């Protein structure tokens, strides 16, 4: 894990989300998927968003490219990116951001590639959507990208169809396609979940290396803290649609401030330690009937009187400007175990 | 898939044909038809309307290889002269069906909601009519004649294609690569054209080849009813219809136009099936 420093707050962040609330209209009435989500991503920063299934991390990612179904989803708040508010900018502007300024890759590399086109065609697609470029040039760029994502004999692979590639190679192709326009931000939604463990590590290495070499910011959405620890500089924990902790990865692993983050960390299996039973967090994420006040309180072993009050995201930096935030009013009173010492 | 053909030399076509015997034969049959159509005046032994008053309803002889019809016209010559009309009729009908059905189905399936509801109800209305009644109604509205009657056959056919395309589009638009394309900044039109259309086209190709055969028969029916080609111009359907009236006296008259229709329809179907298999990248290289 490489040591890092939090970005100085005076820098204008690349992306700035404020008060993002996403509501879905369902047959049972409105469902508030996320509430008051606010965070920044600095240029070149690698941010990991973790949380259990249904905590709103994927939805947040999709909302940044405005890919939520407009008939059922309403989005409030602002997503500031390069001087535009992505929540309500014109559809034409949005299309110019997608692929060109913000790229995205998905969990399922198996189905994210169109079966009737060659790999080269798909990699060059966003290039050809955003600029006029000859077929030969597009092909040359596609080969160059294939080389950059570490695919052997790219001149041959460029004419392959997706079904001729393995899962790991397809994910590499997706990464090549997402990065060919040199976007400022790459959103990776569970990019390694569908892959073998060995391939996972390779893909994570690749993402980290590409992000560092081209100064592309990375937003990695995952439920796997190990993935974040390996490839990110900052970790954002989400729970039941809220951001509950925001901290540099090293700090979050060493000394988490929110009981939920600590619980997540302790429920990671360790090969080195012989423990009789893997600790787990009792209960499950509330979905429709949110508890008042702290949303984690029904599952929290540190809950006391006062936790039923609404919780704000508090500045929790040991030093000013460290960018640590936590949504727990007792964070100074409780001492929580982490995983790295 | 024009992108592929650029990088691959033309001898792939030869190789493809070598590995698809049935398609090669089908293609030969269709090429033969085109040659017939172009060279009809040179090849045909008689003019299509020339009458031989001494040999009416004659069985095949040295003079008339396939016999003559009830007016003493040489059946072989009429078959040859009828080929272009017949092929034109089929292609026109299916072309019209494709031209309407494909975009309508794509739009209904892709955009969904109210657009889909309206289009689907219109399609249902078309499907509720008996085909022949609808064809007659449309032909009488457009005016009698081969072109108009085939346009009306196309209009009768389009709901089938539109339904098929819509159903397929509904599946394809859920696929992740459609969302991925949107992530790359592609517009709806681009996604429809580049991703949805190529992925819906396979079943359409099969349906089109089946429709080509059906269009042949529809042409025959409409000509039989006097709405299609006007006598004395020959078409296979009209010949069949005419032969039908003399079935008891000269049954062999029906064989040649009937067989011609059968072989052509079969050739279309075979070619369509081979094309479908080859256009599916996952079944390539077997």
CA-based shape of chain A: globular
Strand % of chain B is under 5%
Which CATH architecture of chain B is right?
Orthogonal Bundle
Radius of gyration of chain B: 22 Å
CATH topology of chain B: MetI-like fold
The low-confidence runs of chain B, each spanning 5 or more residues with pLDDT under 50, are 1-7
Along the chain, the helix and strand elements of chain A come as EEEHEEHEHHHHEHEHEEHHEE
- Mind describing the biggest β-sheet of chain A? 8 strands, mixed
CATH superfamily of chain B: MetI-like
The figure for the number of domains of chain B is 1
Number of helices of chain A: 10
Distance between the termini of chain A: 13 Å
* Range of helix content of chain B: over 70%
Sketch the major β-sheet of chain B: none
What's the pLDDT, averaged over the residues of chain A?
86
Q: Give the quaternary arrangement of the chains.
A: heterodimer
What is the compact description of this entry?
The complex is a heterodimer of chains A (341) and B (286). Chain A has 341 residues and is of the alpha/beta class.
């Amino acid at each position: 894990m490489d040591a890092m420093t939090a970005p100085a707050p005076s820098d204008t962040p690349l992306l700035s989300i404020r008060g993002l609330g996403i509501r879905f209209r369902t047959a049972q009435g409105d469902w508030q998927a996320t509430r008051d989500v606010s965070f920044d991503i600095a240029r070149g920063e690698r941010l990991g968003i973790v949380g259990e299934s249904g905590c709103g991390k994927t939805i947040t990612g999709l909302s940044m490219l405005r890919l939520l179904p407009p008939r059922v989803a309403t989005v409030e708040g602002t997503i500031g990116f390069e001087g535009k508010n992505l929540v309500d900018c014109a559809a034409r502007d949005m299309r110019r951001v997608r692929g060109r300024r913000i790229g995205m890759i998905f969990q399922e590399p198996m189905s994210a590639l169109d079966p009737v086109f060659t790999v080269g065609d798909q990699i060059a697609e966003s290039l050809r959507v955003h600029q006029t470029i000859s077929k030969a040039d597009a092909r040359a760029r596609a080969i160059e990208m294939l080389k950059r994502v570490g695919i052997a004999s790219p001149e041959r692979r460029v004419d392959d169809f997706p079904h001729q590639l393995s899962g790991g190679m397809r994910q590499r192709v997706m990464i090549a396609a997402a990065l060919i326009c040199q976007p400022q931000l790459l959103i990776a939604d569970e990019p390694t979940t569908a892959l073998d463990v060995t391939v996972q590590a390779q893909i994570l290495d690749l993402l980290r290396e590409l992000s560092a070499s081209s100064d592309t910011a990375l937003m990695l959405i995952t439920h796997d803290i190990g993935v974040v620890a390996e490839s990110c500089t900052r970790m954002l924990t989400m729970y039941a649609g809220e951001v509950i902790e925001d901290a540099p990865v090293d700090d979050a692993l060493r000394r988490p401030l929110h009981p939920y983050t600590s619980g997540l960390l302790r429920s990671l299996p360790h090969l080195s330690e012989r423990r009789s039973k893997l600790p787990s967090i009792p209960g499950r994420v509330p979905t429709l009937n949110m508890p008042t006040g702290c949303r984690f309180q029904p599952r929290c072993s540190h809950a006391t009187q006062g936790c039923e009050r609404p919780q704000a995201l508090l500045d929790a930096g040991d030093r000013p400007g460290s960018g640590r935030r936590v949504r727990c009013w007792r964070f100074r009173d409780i001492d929580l175990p982490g995983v790295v010492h | 898939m024009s992108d592929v053909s650029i990088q691959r030399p033309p001898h792939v076509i030869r190789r493809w044909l070598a590995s698809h015997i049935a398609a090669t034969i089908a293609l030969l049959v269709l090429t033969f038809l085109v040659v017939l159509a172009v060279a009809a005046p040179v090849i045909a032994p008689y003019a299509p309307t020339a009458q031989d008053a001494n040999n009416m309803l004659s069985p095949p002889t040295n003079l008339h290889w396939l016999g003559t019809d009830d007016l003493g016209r040489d059946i072989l010559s009429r078959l040859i002269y009828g080929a272009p009309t017949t092929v034109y009729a089929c292609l026109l009908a299916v072309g019209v069906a494709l031209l309407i059905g494909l975009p309508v189905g794509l739009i209904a399936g892709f955009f969904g909601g109210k657009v889909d509801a309206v289009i689907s109800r219109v399609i249902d209305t078309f499907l509720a009519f008996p085909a022949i009644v609808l064809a007659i109604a449309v032909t009488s509205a457009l005016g009698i004649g081969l072109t108009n009657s085939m346009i009306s056959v196309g209009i009768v056919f389009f709901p089938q294609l539109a339904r098929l395309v819509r159903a397929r589009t509904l599946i394809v638009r859920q696929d992740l690569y459609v969302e991925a394309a949107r992530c790359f900044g592609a517009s709806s039109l681009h996604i429809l054209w580049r991703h949805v259309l190529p992925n819906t086209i396979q079943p359409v190709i099969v349906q089109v080849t089946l429709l080509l055969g059906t269009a042949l028969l529809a042409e025959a029916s409409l000509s039989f009813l006097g709405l299609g080609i006007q006598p004395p111009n020959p078409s296979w359907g009209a010949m069949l219809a005419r032969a039908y009236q003399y079935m008891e006296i000269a049954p062999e008259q029906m064989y040649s136009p009937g067989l011609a229709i059968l072989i052509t329809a079969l050739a279309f179907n075979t070619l369509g099936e081979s094309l479908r298999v080859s256009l599916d990248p996952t079944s390539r290289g077997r």
